[in-house]
TldD/PmbA family protein (Novosphingobium tardum), 448 residues
Amino acid sequence: MLDTTDAQDRCQTLIARALAAGAAAADAVYIGDSSESVAIRLGHLEDVERSESEHIGLRVFVGGGSASIGSTDLGSEALDELAQRAVAMARAAPEDRYAGLAPEERLLKSAPPALDLTDAEDLSPADLRAAAEVTEAAARAVPGVTNSEGAGASAGRARVALATSHGFAGAYETTSHSLSASVVAGTGAGMQRDYAFRSARHAADLISPEEIGALAGKRAVERLAPGRMTSGQRPVVFDPRVGGSLIGHLLGAISGSAIARRASFLLGREDEQLFDPALVIRDDPLRLRGPRSRPFDGEGLPTAPRALVENGRVTGWLMDSAAARQLGLEPTGHAARGASGAPGVMAGNVTLEGGTVTPAALMSDIADGVYVTELIGQGVNPVTGDYSRGAGGFRIVNGELAGPVAEFTIAGNLIDMFARLSAANDLEIYRGIDVPTLRVDGMMIAGD
C-alpha cells in the first residue's frame, strides 16, 4: 500500500497521462487499505485473516462525454493503458451536460484540517486474539448463554488520495479498530441470539472487551421466551442501535441526486415543517476521531459542519457537483468517491439532538406499545416514504418493559413518522449516525 505522498503523486501522474491522451479534464482517486482480524469461537481460535488492497480510479471528460475506469495495477504501463482506455470510452459516451469537475473556485485551497483519524499504535495478531478471547469469555459467562457464534477483534488502516486536473491534490489516512461478539441463549426451539459491536478510529476509544461480551450475553438472554404482538395502532420506541436507520432514510431522501431524479419522498417538501422544532439533526464531517470524518469530499471540496434539520425543517439538499448543476444550486461538500464510477453523496457524522427526558420518562405514559431492538428486511419505499419492516423487541405495558416479543411488523409513512417523532436524552456519539432513544406514536403493528 502506498503512503499518502506516493498515492497523491500517482494520482497526479495518471491525470497527466489522461490529458496527454486527449482528455479535456480529469480526476483520479487512490484507495488503499489493509486489515487484520482474529475470530474466536468456544474458546478456540477459529480464523485469522489479513487483507490488503489498493485501487486507482480515473474519471475523464472529453467534449460532452465522460467515462470512469479503475484498476488494481498501479504500474507505469497499466496507467498508460488506463488513461488511453478512459479517453476512448469518453469519446464514445453520450453527452452529459451536468457532468464535470467541481467548481475550481470552491476547491479546498488550504492545508486539510487535522482530524486525528490515525492511531499510532499497531495491534499485533496476538493482541487481537487476546481481546477476542476476553470478549467471548465475558459473553459466555452470562447466565443463560448456551452457545457462541464467536467473537472477533480487528484493526485496519486506509489511505485515500485525490487529485484533479484543475488544481486540487490531497490525501489522508485513517485507522479502525473493532470488537464484536454474538452468542446464543436457551436451548432447542427456544434459542435466541444477539450481539454487541463497537468500532472506533483509536483502540483507546473502544469500550472494554468485558463490556462488549457482557452486553452481547445480556441481550441474548433477555430475548428468551418471546411473546407475540396483537395487531393495532400503538406507540413504537426505537432503541438507539436501530433508531439511526430512520435518519438514514432521511439522508437518502435529501440527496441531491434523488431530488434531481425526482425519486425522493421529500420532493416538494423542502419548506415544510417535518420534525418537532426542538429536534436538530447535525452533520459534522470534521469531528475529531469521527468514524465518517474526512478533511475534503470526493471532489476536492472542503467539508464543514452544518445542521441538516433545524426548526423542524430540512436546511437543503446534500449535493455533489453534477446534482448541483442539474438543480441550479451549489455543491455542498458531500461528494463520495469509490475507486471507480462517478461521485455519489455521503453525509459525515450525523447526530439527532434535542431530547430532554430520560428513556424511562419517554415511555412512562405508554399503556400498550413496543420497544424495538431489531429491524428485519428493507421494506422502505424511498419515493413514497412508505415504511414496513419486520421487528423484534419488548412489549411496553403501563410505561414499563414487559417481556420480549418477536415476529411482528411495524408500518407507517416516514413523513408521518418524522412528524410524530420525539427523543430521549441518552444520545451517545460513536457511530456514523447517532440518535438517542426515539419514540414514534401512531404506528401500525401487524402481529397475531
About this structure: The mean pLDDT is 96. The longest strand covers residues 145-164. The chain has two domains: 4-221, 226-448.
